[in-house]
Amino acid sequence: MAEQDPFELAQDLSGKHLIDGAFVPSQSGKTFDVIYPATLEVIGKAAFGEKADVDAAVAAAKKAQKAWAALPARERGKLVTECGRRIEAHKEELARLVALETGKALRTESRVEASVVADAFTFYGGLASELKGESVPFNPDMLTVTLREPIGVVGAIIPWNVPMMLMAFKIAPAMVAGNTVVVKSAEEAPFAVLRVCEIMNEVLPPGVFNILSGFGPECGAPLVEHPDVGKVTFTGSVETGKIIYRGAAEKLMPVTLELGGKSPMIVMGDADLERAVAGAVSGVRFTRQGQSCTAASRIYVHESLHDAFIEALKAKVDAMVMGDPLDEKTDIGTIVSEQQYERVLGYITQGKADGGTAHEGSSLPGDGKLAKGYFVRPVIFTDLPEDSRVISEEIFGPVTAIQRFSTLDEVIDKANDSEYGLAATIWTRDLKTAMEGVRRLEAGFVQVNQNLVVQPNLSYGGIKQSGLGKEASLEAMLEHFTHKKTAIINMT
C-alpha cells in the first residue's frame, strides 16, 4: 500500500485524542508542539489532555468494559490478533512516524519497533484460551475452582523511547483479559501510538481502547487518581514511578512499574572477543542513542581482554553513521528532546571532570539542516573512579563506562552494587561460569552471550529500584490484568 508521508500524517493527527472510537479535540482546545529532534521543526500539535479529557476517556472505557468482558475470550483474542495483522500492514508508515517524532534511526531502530508491535498483538491474541482457572482438591463433597476475571478499566502511561512497543506490551494482555484501556502517551511522542489506536479502532468496539496526549501533572495524575481506574501500568523514571505507587496506595490499586536500569555487561577472559564487542554495540543501544532502560551502560571486561576490547569497540562505534533519522544510510539518530540532550551532555562533562577518559565515536552529521538537531556522539569512558555518577546513575544516552576486573567474585560484587536490577549479560564460553553468573546477578532479565531487546514470550521486569511486575509474557496477562476468584459449590 502507498504509505502516507510522516510529516503529513503528523499534521493529520494533530490536536486529537481518540475517545470512544472517535477523534476528539481536548475539551479546553489547548495543544502543545511536537518537534522533529533532528531539525527542531514543529511537525504537529498534540491535544493537551487534562482532567476533563481523562474523565471522558475513563467513562467511555467503563461503559464498554462489561460488554467487552462478556465476549468469549477467544473472540477477544481474534479481534486483538486482527489488530496485529492490520498494524503489520501499516508497519512502514508507523516506523517512519515514530522515527520522525523520536529521532530514532528508521533502518536500525524504528522498523524493528514497528515489527515487534504487530507481533505483540498477535502473540497475546493467541493466548486468549489460557485465561483459565484451576480445580482445587479441597473437599470431595465440594466443587472448588478458581476463575480469572478482568480488573475493569486499566490506565497505561507509556514512555517516548519505544512508545509503540511498550504500549503494546501493556494494552494487548489487558484487552485480551477482558479489560478496557486508557493510554496516556508521552508528550514527546504522541503521534505513532495515536495512529496505532486509530488502526485498532477499526476493529475494536468503541471505548475498548482510548488514548490521550498530555503531561504528567495535568493528564497522568488524574488518570492514576480516577476512582474508576482499577489498575495502572507505567514505564518511565523511578521518581515518577514512586509518585504513581503512592497514588495507587491511596486506592489500594495494583500497579505494574517498569522503571530505570543501570545494566552491567560482564566479559569474561574466555569470551569470544568479536562476538562480545558486537554484543556491546547492540547492548549499549548505540543505534537508539542509548535511550533504553536495559542499555549496557556499565561494561566490565576481564583484564586479559580489556585493552583489545576497547580498541575493537571504538572501531565499531566509529564506523557508525550519524545522520537524519529518516535516511536509510543512518545508523544513529538523535536524542529525543532538549531536556534529555542537556542531561546527557551534563553526564559526559561530569565523567571528564571525574578524571575519566572519554573516547568519542562516530561523527556529527555534516548536513547544515541538521546543525541544530539533538545529536550526541557516542562516548566510551575508561579510567572512571568507582564513585563517579556516570557509573552509578542512569544516563539514558549513548554513554557507557568500561572497567577492568580479574575475578568472577570481584565483578559480580561490582555488578550488583547498584540500586537497579533490571537487566544484565555475561559473556563466556564456560557453562559453569555462565550458570553461576545467572544465579548470582541481581537482575530480573539476564542473558548469556547475547543482548536481545525485549520480545514477546520473554518475561521481562526488574527488581530493586527497577520496578514491580512482569511484562511480555503469559504470566503478565494472568497475574497483572486479572483477579483470581475462588468459587466453592457444596454438593451435599
Automatic annotation (TrEMBL):
List the Pfam families hit by this protein, alphabetically. Answer: Aldedh
Q: Which UniProt keywords apply?
A: Oxidoreductase
- InterPro entries referenced in this protein's UniProt entry, alphabetically: Ald_DH/histidinol_DH, Ald_DH_C, Ald_DH_CS_CYS, Ald_DH_CS_GLU, Ald_DH_N, Aldehyde_DH_dom
Database matches in SUPFAM superfamilies = ALDH-like
Signal peptide per UniProt: none
Q: Where is the active site?
A: 258
Domain Aldehyde dehydrogenase span(s) in chain numbering: 23-486
The UniProt entry, under PANTHER family, shows:
ALDEHYDE DEHYDROGENASE-RELATED
- The family this protein is said to belong to: Belongs to the aldehyde dehydrogenase family.
* Name used for this protein in its record: Aldehyde dehydrogenase family protein
